Amino acid sequence: TTSPAPTISPPPRTTITTISYLLLVLLLLLLLNTYLSPQTLPQNTGSGWYEDLLGFFRRTDVVSVTPWLAPIVWEGTFDPVLIDNIYKPMNLTIATTVFAVGKYVSFLKDFLETAEKHFMINFRVRYYVFTDRPNEVPSVNLSGGRHLTVISIPGSNRWQEISAQRMKIIHNTIETQIRKEADYIFCLDVDSKFHFRWGAESLGRLVSVIHPGYYDTTRNNFPYERRPASKAFMSMDQGDYYYGGAVIGGLVEDVYILTKECQKRFEEDAKNSIEAAWQEESHLNRYLYYNKPSKVLSPEYLWQDFKARTKKVKVIRFSGVIKNYAAVRPNV
């Protein structure tokens, strides 16, 4: 007779758990090894997400990572010293665009003065001011390595038209000038002030900001363009976050592509006599749904002065000022 084969007992459950844990640690180490070299950042990801890996779970009261694993930057989810030490050796230049058209030029002084206190300190910065009143651009003392360029553009009798032309003007200026002078770009609203550090933690391949009015609500309440005839159309089952149009950022070439596509869709709507619900912001939200940002900034980076600070928003870095729209807009 043949003796029965020996019985092989399965490994204990604790052994399987230990092996799985070790494999997970090994995977994280491989990821860190792949992305931790600062020299590869702009070419490979531009997101800087790895420096936030350990920071994701420092805050348990907010969501600090998107479903596609991009970091959502909140106070307490990053180490400013570590991030500065990673980015400063890269010798980067950050472009910053603002539109100071009509009476909005009155906001420019505060914007620039507070930027010099809080925005990308110890980095090279190039401000590009688009205005129809170049003679009213204020004189502001800039730190070393920081420059201001004034670019004249036409005025308008409708603020919606100014908003509509923003993407086109930024796109054209990137093509003719900015791509030769900067690595990253942030397109910001001039009627705002900086109040706290805005640094390298915000740099990424494609960067968006969660709108302060919709960061704590459900998707059904987002003011997307809902008309199917519009090129900005978003159905009720689409959308991740509602992004504010007052902050657009990323590598210069990625923002170049974004502005080109948004302007194209805006012009297609115009041919059909359609104006999206929130002009370029509506087109921006559609673009970012299909082209996910590599880094998302929390509402700390786009607050509104009339809103009270909440428990989740521990610091306010950049905030829109309170204003009388009837006094500064050509039409309301």
From TrEMBL:
GO terms for molecular function: hexosyltransferase activity; metal ion binding. It comes from the Eukaryota. The keyword Glycosyltransferase applies. The keyword Transferase applies. Its cofactor is Mn(2+). It is a single-pass type II membrane protein. PANTHER family: GLOBOSIDE ALPHA-1,3-N-ACETYLGALACTOSAMINYLTRANSFERASE 1 (PTHR10462:SF49), GLYCOSYLTRANSFERASE-RELATED (PTHR10462). This is Globoside alpha-1,3-N-acetylgalactosaminyltransferase 1, like 2. It comes from Esox lucius.
